Amino acid sequence: MILADVQAFVKERRQVTVAETARQVGAEPDAVRRMLGLLEAKGRVHRIPLPGSCGTGCCQCSAAGDEVYGWGPAAGLPQISLPCASGR
């Protein structure tokens, strides 16, 4: 079942984007987004809010704009930063 595959992928990776999950399970991003929404409603995954931009004008932030989900409930987890800002 593809829902179980999505769940297993998020559990293994701990943090995933919709796009990489879609590639992994061989499904359309919209279908994966709906499955992640179902898993989120069940409390198995949570959506991780991303900042709008890193503030440096690097033009890489739009590439990182995919939706990110993490394994488990959202309580107490830190917000992630964009890849281009992590080295500063």
Q: Main traits of this protein?
A:
3 strands; three-stranded antiparallel β-sheet; single chain; globular; 88 residues; alpha+beta; Arc Repressor Mutant, subunit A
Structure write-up:
- It is a single chain.
- It is built from 3 helices and 3 strands.
- It has a 3-stranded antiparallel β-sheet with strand order 1-3-2.
- It has helices at 2-13, 18-25, 29-41, and strands at 15-17, 45-48, 68-71.
- Helix 1 (2-13) packs across helix 2 (18-25) and helix 2 (18-25) packs across helix 3.
- By secondary structure, the chain is α+β, with helices and mostly antiparallel strands.
- The protein has a single domain (2-78), classed as Arc Repressor Mutant, subunit A (Orthogonal Bundle).
- The mean pLDDT is 81.
- The termini are far apart.
Q: Can you identify the CATH superfamily?
A: Winged helix-like DNA-binding domain superfamily/Winged helix DNA-binding domain
Shape: globular
**What strand line-up does the widest sheet have?**
1-3-2
Q: What kind of assembly state do the chains in view correspond to?
A: single chain
- Domain module tally: 1
**Cα-atom radius of gyration:** 13 Å
Strand elements, count: 3
Sheet/helix structural class: alpha+beta
> How far do the termini sit from each other?
42 Å
Mean pLDDT, to the nearest integer, reads 81
Major sheet, described briefly? 3 strands, antiparallel
Fill in the CATH topology.
Arc Repressor Mutant, subunit A
Helix percentage range: 25-40%
Name of the CATH first level: Mainly Alpha
Order of helices and strands: HEHHEE
Which range does the strand content fall in?
Answer: 5-15%
Number of alpha- plus pi-helical segments: 3
Unreliable runs: none
CATH architecture descriptor: Orthogonal Bundle
